[in-house]
Write a structure and sequence with these properties.
9 helices; mainly alpha
């Protein structure tokens, strides 16, 4: 399932440009020095990926805890259903219940830190901007987080988020260099594809959790006994 992280990042970066594009456009890069500019943009991306890796590590630990209690299959199915529901339920429904209100203060501090970092041009500026940028709320990041929980392993959870971050780099970098480079029609078409792909990933997690005995796709559940691991099928 790790491969889905890169594809989710690639497709999701169209959404990221819309959400994080203003930050990318405002990066205080040195436009008179190409080598320095590339170095600064790379440092910005490294900051984002470090943030994503921490997020993946934390939620991977959550998944690991559930795995220890023997809930790996149920977890995979629940994550798949949740991903599909998030896509199908209208955004207005989530706004109605204001589910993100408890973290508004944290988000406010992140934005404040970003604002201060954008005003500076010190050596750590771009790393700081990228790192803080990684913690801003984003629907596609949430989808990747769900998947990292289902990885059932802290290192795999972190790796999933790192791969997701790497997938966003090509388009985000192009956005920094060229600004508005895609016409509205192309953006709208890609935006329509993203929910379909998220639903596909959700279905894959559900199939995986069903333990149908299909190699790589839906392996049979494995339980641990005193004599070692045994295949339930």
């Amino acid at each position: 399932m790790l491969w889905s992280a890169i594809i989710l990042g690639l497709l999701g970066s169209f959404h990221c440009v819309g959400m994080c594009g203003p930050i990318a456009f405002m990066l205080p890069v040195d436009r008179s020095n190409s080598i320095k500019k590339i170095s600064q943009i790379t440092t910005y991306h490294i900051g984002r990926i470090i943030a994503y890796s921490f997020i993946g590590l934390f939620f991977g630990l959550v998944g690991k805890s559930l795995y220890i209690f023997g809930l790996q299959q149920q977890l995979s199915i629940a994550i798949g259903v949740l991903m599909i529901l998030v896509v199908l339920i209208p955004v207005n429904t989530f706004n109605k219940y204001n589910l993100s209100k408890p973290i508004y203060k944290v988000i406010s501090k992140v934005k404040s830190g970003l604002g201060n970092a954008l005003k500076r041009k010190t050596a750590d500026t771009f790393l700081t901007i990228g790192f803080l940028n990684g913690f801003l709320p984003c629907g596609l990041v949430y989808m990747a987080v769900f998947a990292s929980v289902a990885m059932q392993n802290a290192s795999h959870g972190a790796l999933y988020m790192v791969l997701f971050g790497l997938g966003t780099i090509p388009l985000m970098t192009t956005a920094i260099y060229l600004g508005k480079f895609l016409n509205a029609t192309i953006k709208q078409r890609v935006q329509k594809v993203i929910p379909l792909f998220v639903i596909l990933i959700g279905l894959l997690f559900i199939i995986r959790g069903l333990g149908l005995g299909i190699p790589y796709l839906s392996p049979a559940p494995v339980i641990e006994t005193a004599n070692g691991l045994i295949d339930c099928h």
